[in-house]
Structures are given as C-alpha cells and as structure tokens.
Amino acid sequence: MGLTATTIIVILCIVLLMVFLYLVPVSLWFQCVLNGVKISLVQLMFMRWRKIPPAIIVNAMINSKKAGLDLNSNALEAHYQAGGHVQRVVNALISADKANISLDFKAATAIDLAGRDVFEAVQMSVNPRVIDTPSVAAVARNGIQLIVKARVTVRANISQLVGGAGEETILARVGEGIVTSIGSAESHAYVLENPDSISKLVLSKGLDTGTAFEILSIDIADIDVGKNIGAELQMDQANADKNIAQAKAEERRSMAIAAEQEMKAKAQEMRAKVIEAEAEIPMAMAEAFRKGNLGIMDYYKMKNIQADTDMRETISKSQN
Which of these, 58, 104, 107, 112, lies nearest to 82 by C-alpha position? Predict the structure, then answer.
C-alpha cells in the first residue's frame, strides 16, 4: 500500500512539473537571458495564457537582437494576434536593413497583413525577378501579324506593396503596349529590324504606375511572323461583296420571272376575252342578218378576207 501511494505521489509530482514547465517556459527565459533579450518570465507565462507561442516571439526577438534591430515584444505579440507572420516580418526587416532598404516595422506588418509576402518582396528588391509574358499577337499597318514574347524585369516597390496591383496588371499593360507599338509601325519589316522600338515605346508609357513593382527593362525574347491579316480581310470582303452581288442578281432574276409570269397571265386573260368575244360573233352576225344590217355579199366578202388571212399565216409559218 505504501509503494502505491509513493508511486502516485511521484506521478503527481511529474505531472505538476510538466505543467509548471509548460506554463513557465524556463528554458526560453534562459535563452533570453543569454542573448540579452529583455523578456521576463512573467511575460512568457502571460503569452501562454494569451495563446501566443512564446518560442515564436523569443526566436524573433533573438534574431532581431543579433541583427542589431530593436523590436518590442508587445508589438510582435500584437502582430501575431492580428494573424500576421512574425518570423517572416522579422526576416524581412533584417534583410532590408542589410540591403540598406528603407523599411520600418509598421510598414512591414502592414504589408504582411495585406496578404503579401514581405520577406519575398524585400528579396525581390535586392534580386529583381524576370517575368515571361505570354505570346502577344499584333498587326502592323501593312496587315502582317507578328507574334511577340517579352521578358519583363521587375523589382518590388516597397512603398506600393499595400494597395498596388500585381503581376497580372504588369503583364496586361505590357501586352497592351506591345500591341500599340506594332500597330503604329508602317510595316512588320521595320519591327523585325528594330525590336528595341517596342521596348522603348512600352517603357515610355509608365506601365508600373500604381503597381507593386518597378519595371527595370522590357526585352523582346522572340518575334514570329504570323498570318497576312490584311489579305485575309480583303478576301473576306471580296467574298462578302460576291455574295451580295449574287443575292441581288437572284433578286432581279426572281423579279423578272415574276414579271414574265404576270405578263403570261395577262396574255392568257386577254386571249380568254378574245375567245369569248369570238364566240359572240356568230350570234352578232345572226342578229345582224335578222335586222337587215348585214347582207349576203358582205358575209362572203368577210369570209374571203378571213381565208386570205389564214392563207398568209400558213405561208409565213411554212417559210419560217
């Protein structure tokens, strides 16, 4: 029974010691003392209670102290609680200080909380980045298409990282500048002979205004000759004109056919009226005989004239 009680006491002591060491990070405080960082043991305990990992704050303070920077632990705690990356901010401040780049703690935390990698931005300020643009197709004034790829060398603009546009805006503006430059050239041959004319015109437009980057150079990596857009447009226009002419000709032919059919209908109508009138002739002649307006001699004379007319028509048809 005594052994059991002793064992329980030992276990409780070990548990209490572990809890104490967790709540009171003596090892971290000892590191602060050795490195000349002014953080008390009570402050480290309060960090635990505020759910702030003391190791992050201590390591950041030690790194900044070794680099000659004077940072405040309360400011680092506030930045961590705001959702920032403490170590990334400290690394950025150290890199900026070594590279003689103007960057203070307030600006660095603002950049970090804005969602940008402040440490990467400082590195890009020291080592510019090369961005390859996608293929940009443009047409010169002579109608020849050129396909251009460019390389844009940029470095981060620290003062514009908060609220400044990103790489997509740079690429869009460079593409627009390439299209404008080629479109203003008299011929594609001039662009092929002077590719630097594109770079000069694009750089003169101040494309990095309002962005988080500063454009250092724009180099034309490749130029390919594409289609003869002007000739294709002329062919398309010619085909369109031909289709319009054919449509108008078909319209005129349809109107002519309609007019011909209308004339045939009118002729058939007139012929029907003539036949109807001819059918009334015998009745009219009989009436004239009864009334004495037509004699026998007149009738035979009319028949002779009709016979002569039929004979002439028969002779004319045989000759044709």
Answer: 112
Kindly report the three-state secondary structure assignment for every residue of 64-124. HHHCCCCCCHHHHHHHHHCCCCHHHHHHHHHHHHHCCCCCCHHHHHHHHHCCCCHHHHHHH
**CB-based contact 79:86 (threshold 8 Å):** yes
Indicate the residue type of 88.
Answer: R
Query: Residues of the chain with pLDDT > 90: what percent?
Result: 0
From residue 184, give the alpha-carbon distance in Å to each of 109, 124, 200, 230. Answer: 45, 34, 13, 15
- Amino acid of residue 90: V
- pLDDT, tens digit (0-9, with 9 covering 90-100), for 210-243: 888 888 888 888 888 878 776 677 777 888 888 8
Most confident of 28-42, 190-204, 252-266, 292-306: 252-266
- The Cα–Cα gap between 23 and 98 comes to 36
Instruction: Give the confidence band of 8 by pLDDT, cuts at 50, 70, 90.
Output: low
Mean pLDDT in residue range 274-280 = 74
> What are the structure tokens assigned to 294, written together?
């037509």
Tokens representing residue 274 in the block: 């003539």
What CA–CA distance (Å, rounded) separates 206 from 221?
21
Q: For residue 20, how many other CB atoms are within 10 A of its CB?
A: 10
